[in-house]
Amino acid sequence: MDRLLNGKAVVVTGAGRGLGEAFAVHAAQAGAAVVVNDLDADLAERTAANIREHGGRAVASGHSVADPEQAQAMVELCVAEFGAIDGLVSNAGVNYEALPWQEEPDQIRELVETNVLGVIYTGMAAAKAMMAQGRGGSIVNISSGASLGQRKLATYAASKGAVASLTYSWALDMEDVGIRVNAVCPLAHTRMVWKSERSLRNCPPDRTPSRIAPVVLFLLGDGSHGITGQLIRCNGPQLHIVGQPYLKAPILERAVWDSDSVQRAFDEVFSAHLEPYGLEKRVPPRLRKWTEGASTPLRSA
Ligand SMILES: NC(=O)c1ccc[n+]([C@@H]2O[C@H](COP(=O)([O-])OP(=O)(O)OC[C@H]3O[C@@H](n4cnc5c(N)ncnc54)[C@H](O)[C@@H]3O)[C@@H](O)[C@H]2O)c1
């Protein structure tokens, strides 16, 4: 059996089902003692009991990541039960589909509180405890390919973009204290996918959560030393790094930009540099006339 997490204590949030359950079970199989967290305490206990029945070490937590005190309590439970916290997988998340004019403020708030504030609250509690221990650690946030922009998923996409930005920023903040921070963009057949016809089309049943677990275990383990600030995508068969936003050349410079010079910058320079946008890489209308049919050879008039 793979024991690459021997002697480590890790917290996995949202681990009562789906991807989190797979991360928790695989971490335990790899030798970690695991706090199995889920807002649904019965499901958390089910996963923890399953791990214990198979000879692993696990304790359940029904805390909500969306509450800073409960997030802190979850980390304290790990330290109290297992003497330390070496890893955190911030996996708990919710999603829904809506067009901008269909959005409901309560639903938006719940999503942001879980997917953004939850990752911050749990991560900061873990970082504090890891700092106090003085032997570093590994934080693995769960982002999404949706962070690149997807139709009907704007609020969810924004929350996962926030997780990506948090990951790069925390990696900068924590490198000196030996805490690595990376993010994984998974794709797996879970109830999150069952809810959407489009997701189901892109994600057949053989894309099981267990296929993503080795990536998360790698990032938790010592074999990934020197790897931080990365966004890594795995959809089952494909594994790759996600490129990060950057300041794109040409960078024009003048003392003052007025309406006329901004218009000219776009007409004369940036029109040709506009970026395809969203996960589907949609070409902006202004550029589209130059790219449509580009694969067919040009014919002379
Ligand atoms: N399934 C995919 O293809 C996919 C793709 C990209 C990203 N993700 C992300 O992966 C993570 C897991 O997704 P999943 O597909 O397994 O979803 P899931 O709905 O099956 O599981 C999510 C779990 O999080 C728990 N949870 C929700 N709010 C919580 C809170 N406040 N505190 C603690 N637990 C809470 C839920 O009870 C649930 O058990 C999510 O962050 C999701 O956004 C999933």
The DSSP helix count reads: 10
Identify the strand order in the major beta sheet.
Answer: 3-2-1-4-5-6-7-8
- Under CATH at level 1, the class of the largest domain stands as Alpha Beta
Bound molecules: nicotinamide-adenine-dinucleotide
Explain briefly what this protein structure is.
The chain is of the alpha/beta class and 301 residues long. 42% of the residues lie in helices and 13% in strands. An 8-stranded mixed β-sheet has the order 3-2-1-4-5-6-7-8, sandwiched between helices.
Write the layout of secondary structure elements.
Elements lengths: L8 E4 L5 H12 L3 E5 L3 H13 L3 E5 L6 H15 L4 E4 L14 H29 L3 E6 L11 H21 L4 E8 L4 H4 L2 H6 L10 H8 L10 E4 L4 E3 L17 H11 L15 H7 L10
Parallel strand pairs: 1-2, 1-4, 2-3, 4-5, 5-6, 6-7
Antiparallel strand pairs: 7-8
Helix pairs in contact: 1-2, 1-8, 3-4, 4-5
The structure holds nicotinamide-adenine-dinucleotide.
Protein name: Short-chain dehydrogenase
Family: Belongs to the short-chain dehydrogenases/reductases (SDR) family.
GO molecular function: oxidoreductase activity, acting on the CH-OH group of donors, NAD or NADP as acceptor
Descriptive report:
- By secondary structure, the protein is an alpha/beta fold.
- The protein has two domains: 233 residues, NAD(P)-binding Rossmann-like Domain (Rossmann fold, 3-Layer(aba) Sandwich), CATH 3.40.50.720; 56 residues, no CATH class.
- The protein contains ten helices and eight strands.
- Strand 1, helix 1 and strand 2 form a beta-alpha-beta unit.
- The longest helix has 29 residues.
- The N and C termini lie far apart (68 Å).
- The C terminus is likely disordered.
- Belongs to the short-chain dehydrogenases/reductases (SDR) family.
- Keywords: Oxidoreductase.
- GO terms for molecular function: oxidoreductase activity, acting on the CH-OH group of donors, NAD or NADP as acceptor.
- It holds the Pfam family adh_short.
